[in-house]
Amino acid sequence: MSPAARSVDRHGRGRDVAVVAFAQSNHTRRTDQLSEVELVMPVLHDVLKQTGLTANRIGFTCSGSSDYLAGRAFSFTMALDGVGAWPPISESHVEMDGAWALYEAWVKLRTGEADTALVYSYGKSSPGSVRDVLTRQLDPYTLAPLWPDSIALAALQAQALIDAGLTDEPRLAETAVRSRRAATGNPHAQLRGSADPAELLQRPYEVEPLRRHDCPPISDGAAAVILAAGDTARALHANPAWIRGIDHRIEAHQPGVRDLTESPSTRLAAAAAGAFDAPLDAAELHAPFTAQEVVLRRALYLSDDVPVNPSGGPLAANPVMAAGLIRIGEAAALIHRGEAHRVLAHATSGPCLQQNLVAVLEGTNGNRNGNSPRSTDGTRGGAR
Amino acid sequence: MTTAAELLAGIPELAGAEPVTRVTIPARLEYTHTPGSAQTRFLTALPDKRLLAERCPQCTRVYVPPRGACPTCGVATTEQLELPHTGTVTTFCIVNIAAKGLNIEVPYCYAYVLLDGAHVGLHARVGDVPYADVRIGQRVEAVWNEERLGPSLASISHFRPTGEPDADPESYRRWM
């Protein structure tokens, strides 16, 4: 039977799609010794090996990356060398974080055009100045000519949150400490461990009110996920991380017209993904700046007892274009390891959380073994 | 086509305003590109007039310049080998328009040279021959740029005919 004939299951529903494998590089500040394909290929081999699949048995391949990071046109075609595209494969690319590549692949699987998908993304920020590069995504006529860099825009958002009484610098420092101490259990993270909040708060501002600890590290890295539908997923993993819902929404392009303390796009996406239908065991949030976790916790109605970013999150490693896909991968990994049953994953793109994607992942019903996610050392920061 | 003035005419608030028809917004980003391990090995061998290639362990194709991966098989090209300086023209064109910033007199001949033992063509110029005589299958050899030997393909000035008989088309047909 062709895949298309099985696009609807015997109950008439769209097919269930699960994350069955996840791999990532060890993220570092520079990877001068590696080309993009040399960075990506080991991650692809890792994720394929986990399932026993080979590239030519994958139904659909989709990647996410940015030519602006690479400083070269069509840079993704060189990374595609690491996939092995012969005989010709069904392939696509988004100039976005890999989380959006995963969304495209999820649609392919839901509609029955493929049974398996390889999703990967990578970013080498080291060749250029990522703070300047990210200004090129702003409105080209009125905003980009001012070169407001990514940290300056995040600082505006943080100041708006402080002015609204929703956080303060000590609480932001707690978020940084909690994230980087959680990352001590993550061998792929770039920043593992942290000084105490009191010490961090003695340090100078990067862009007031943000200090260095409030900002993500600049990272080179790659990540890959394999998706599979229905029985294929069950055959490939004993405990697939089923994508129960996924949606993405976008705010106005001009940050000046937004209330930067709120994220209605995240809340809409979360509602559409079913995030509010049942309690969550953990959340992997793509909040590169400490203050953005405050916005996301509020948008997602996350209570303090939901562990956030047990992996360390993007404050511990932030390979641009891959950091969102990594959130989905880390959420799935919690389920694969039996440490959680229902996990929310969030990805963002653009300045001040402009675009947001929310996915809700679940283990197979009754498959929970009750372990809790990796310790977050109890110093939970963010919104109260 | 609607002009900018006609578009503005429909907006009362902008009555009489001079339409902005063009803005120039300079933008410059600087990158320090690093070529990765495989290409670094290739580039650093050029000053010694050595052409390093890599072979795919699965399909045995030989790539030059190597990029560290076989795009056909998706595996690392782990075996390194050195190629001779001779090859076969597999396609060519005569360039009559000078590219901006390129210090080459036009017309010149631009070709793919399939180095002996390689399975992808190397981009190169062909010279020391009337362009009317350049042809597919022609045997050529590298002429090194003795004054500019460095970690760059500019170390090869061009390829020139060896005078050997043309290569058997079967030897390069699959790699054109």
TrEMBL record, chain A:
Highest taxon above the source species: Bacteria
Q: Does the keyword Transferase apply?
A: yes
Compositionally biased tracts (Polar residues)? 364-378
Q: Where is this region: Disordered?
A: 179-198, 363-384
Entry-linked InterPro entries: Thiolase, Thiolase-like
What keywords tag this UniProt record?
Transferase
Q: Name one GO molecular function term.
A: acyltransferase activity, transferring groups other than amino-acyl groups
Q: What name does this protein carry?
A: Acetyl-CoA acetyltransferase
- Organism phylogeny: Bacteria, Bacillati, Actinomycetota, Actinomycetes, Kitasatosporales
Automatic annotation (TrEMBL), chain B:
Superkingdom of this entry's organism? Bacteria
Tell me which positions the record assigns to the signal sequence. none
InterPro entries according to UniProt? ChsH2_C, ChsH2_Znr, NA-bd_OB-fold, Thioester_dehydratase-like
SUPFAM superfamilies from the xrefs? Answer: Nucleic acid-binding proteins
Domain ChsH2 C-terminal OB-fold positions: 82-144
Q: Where is the ChsH2 rubredoxin-like zinc ribbon domain?
A: 45-77
User: Which region ranges are annotated with the description Disordered?
Assistant: 155-176
| Protein name as catalogued | DUF35 domain-containing protein
Native source organism of the sequence: Streptacidiphilus jiangxiensis
